[in-house]
Amino acid sequence: AQTYSSYKHHNTVKYLIGITPQGIVSYILEGWGGRTSYKYLTEHCTLLNKLHGTKRYRLSRQGI
């Protein structure tokens, strides 16, 4: 299964969440299996398309 982690010994999921500088959640991507890579998530979401042309944005892996 794409959610089972042999390292953590249970099922895991990943979400990609966008948060504004003011701390407001502005984007939530549907959950993916925990084995999905962060690179794949970022490449296959629409969030980066929405940010194209903006002056600044930062990608961060929090809560790992």
Automatic annotation (TrEMBL):
Coiled coil: none annotated. The keyword Nucleus does not apply. Pfam families: DDE_Tnp_4 (PF13359). Keywords: Metal-binding. GO terms for molecular function: metal ion binding. Its cofactor is a divalent metal cation. Residues 1-52 form the DDE Tnp4 domain. This is DDE Tnp4 domain-containing protein. The lineage of its organism: Eukaryota, Metazoa, Porifera, Demospongiae, Heteroscleromorpha.
